[in-house]
Amino acid sequence: MSEVKNILLVGVGGQGTILASKILSNGLIQAGYDVKMSEIHGMSQRGGNVSTQVRYGEKVWSPIIGEGDADVIVAFEKMEALRWIGYLKKGGKMVVNDHEIPSVPILMGVAKYPLRILDELASKADVAVFKAGELAEGLGNAKAMNVILLGALVKALGLADDPRIDWEKAVRENVKPQFAELNVKAFRLGLDQIR
Amino acid sequence: MKQLMTGNEAVARGAYEAGLVFASAYPGTPSTEILETLGTVYRDSLYSEWAPNEKVALEAALGASIAGVRAMACMKHVGLNVAADPLFTVAYTGVTGGLVVVSADDPGMHSSQNEQDNRNYASAARVMMLEPSDSQEAKDMTKLAFELSERFDTPVLLRMTTRVCHSKGMVELGERVEKEPIEYRKNIAKYVSTPANAKVSRKNLPDRLAREEAYANDCAVNTIEPAADAKDGKGRIGVACSGVSYEYAKEVFGEKASYLKLGLTYPFPVALAKKFAETVETVYVVEEVDPYIENNLKANGIACVGKDVVPAFDELNPDILRTVFHPILPDVVKDVPETLRSDLQAVVRPPAMCAGCPHRGFYYALSKKKGIMVTGDIGCYTLGAAPPLSAIDTTICMGASVSSGHGASVAFKRTGRDTKVVSCIGDSTFFHSGVTSLMDAIYNKGTNVTVILDNRITGMTGHQENPGTGYTLMGEETTEVDIPALCVALGMKPENIRTVNPLNLKECDEALDEALARDEASVIITKWPCALKKFSREDRETFDLSPKVAEIDQDRCRRCGLCSKTGCPAIYKSLKVTINRESCTGCGVCAQVCPFGAIKVSKR
Description:
The complex is a heterodimer of chains A (195) and B (604).
Chain A: E1 5-12, H1 17-30, E2 34-39, E3 49-57, E4 70-75, H2 78-84, E5 88-97, H3 104-107, H4 117-124, E6 126-130, H5 132-138, H6 145-156, H7 167-174, H8 180-191
Parallel strand pairs in A: 1-4, 4-5, 5-6
Antiparallel strand pairs in A: 1-3, 2-3
Chain B: E1 2-6, H1 7-17, E2 22-25, H2 33-40, E3 47-50, H3 54-66, E4 71-76, H4 77-93, E5 99-105, H5 119-125, E6 128-130, H6 135-152, E7 156-161, H7 162-166, E8 167-172, H8 188-191, H9 195-217, E9 222-225, E10 235-242, H10 245-253, E11 258-262, E12 264-266, H11 270-279, E13 280-286, H12 292-299, H13 318-325, H14 358-367, E14 372-375, H15 400-414, E15 420-426, H16 427-443, E16 449-454, H17 483-489, E17 497-500, H18 505-517, E18 522-527, H19 537-542, E19 548-552, E20 571-573, E21 577-579, H20 589-593, E22 599-603
Parallel strand pairs in B: 2-3, 2-4, 4-5, 5-7, 6-7, 10-11, 10-13, 14-15, 15-16, 16-18, 17-18
Antiparallel strand pairs in B: 1-8, 6-12, 9-11, 19-22, 20-21
Helix pairs in contact in B: 1-2, 1-6, 3-4, 10-13, 14-18, 15-16
């Protein structure tokens, strides 16, 4: 039986982690994998942290993973990468958006946004960092950040050239028609961010 | 065809395929998307509605069942407390068309006020129960539930949990099969539950349960899966489980254990469990929250290891199982993997009222009042209890703000204390169970101030229509409840009702002072649409919702931080105080708080 791979997407409510997870799952299904995706709804729209887990392989049992289990973590926000690093498998990869969203205690001035997060992450794991927000603005729509990060994730997973998967089709099928071209460009741009 | 679906979408699909005609629910995480899916994806094939509460939802579904069609009521776990009254009696009367009750439990309390295990309701009410472990089973067992309901003449409880509801898995789709309605026949002995009739139904119940148990012992959803290395069907480790715990157990024990995989857990399949116990050396019970399976095994003389090692509260996950089972079975269960640790700590990210939330202005004004007790309720506005506002003293259950506020205000008065009580309840929660509470307070000459936070939608669960919005689940226009007129009908003096704009601090402040000065009941209605709402035509006609933004004049700003004390996530107090242009809606609460006139709101 092929090994089950575990992906963790983390961010802040409203950043589009769930859409990215949907497109990812859609692609994985094209390849014939069994896929499970788990997310926590509830109060996330109101500024809380959001996490989505995607597991794929020949047969997936548990919809959720534990600490030390993730093959790849994609963090849509820097501090969230720090929060979830315990979930990364030893030797796992991280894709980190160099982007800060201060939480309420920081906004109110009662706590400080941690300094040197990127150095800390780099000292612990194999981390790819880039500014997905700026790249998205370059494409003319800041919201495309999530699909840029998805592109980077797909490359990091080694699935960019999988002949069974038409990623651009997966992107098109999950976004509104008027945003299809933008998101396909964003996906390609994401692929280019990972060596 | 296969499709990736959440457990909730799969329940909706199963109900659709089963020929469901009538569905009702009150929204509640993690159950909400079942009815949302029925009301959108399958709206052309079946009828669905939001009820004001779960008791109403179940009673409406029951009526449809008696009228001869397949019907379903869905709710979160605490909703079944509200619907428990009809449930216990429908267990006696039975049904006509298949009747399925979905209870979505929330182990770990991701978005709930308690962690009750509703499997206990099945045995307490004597209602057949199914527990799917993934999306495919959620669909299959929904269909099975309708068949069993009709076959055994009983309501069937479909017990889901957060992870089953909100995890996606592959689901094989089938076609919808339309069912001919069952002819309506008056049957007083069956459906009029007077003591005389109920005594007969009660007497017949054990016989029905015995037939159900015989089915449970020999059905496709209750199975024994022998371990890969079992010899003559006998193995070393046996795992008894149901629901999502089965998925966790398979992940951790793999093929090295035998499984008693239970999908139908009430009536409990005693004979099957005994047979299983004979095939293994030790039975381990893997289940979330209460020892439901464990107690059933032990009550029937089957030795097992359960809650003495598996945690009795919070969600399970594969890591928890590895942590508890690796020391006992090191050759079978792997240890938890090594984890990376960082000395650098992430700052907590608690949920907060959104930028532009209409509740913020009112709570800011309320937080300035001294010597009061504030009873709160269930919804986004519970976040008013969080710092910096910290404006709520209690939150217990739906509707409790008004009734417990009444009790508290009587207690203060009777014992000579002058503490005033303000009870804060949202529009949807008021319709759910605040109306009878307010009736109680008014009729019994209470003095608490009831604040109805009317944001024109059911907010916390993700924007469902309610009797105050003027639209149904299926998108039809309807007559909205007139809240002030309803309060008058409950006996409230018209002059003691005031409707305010919650984003106007002066208005809120004055309304509170006026109400708190009175020695009789008052109602304040704060009326402004949720900042995240997709505004209706009426919203646009009634409120000034033109896009605005607030900006700080840095020359005037003295960095006192008062604006950030409103708890608005668009305001950032660092070396400078700034407002995030992206998230600011220009609601203007911060501008009213600023003592230096440094914040200006302008049109975008």
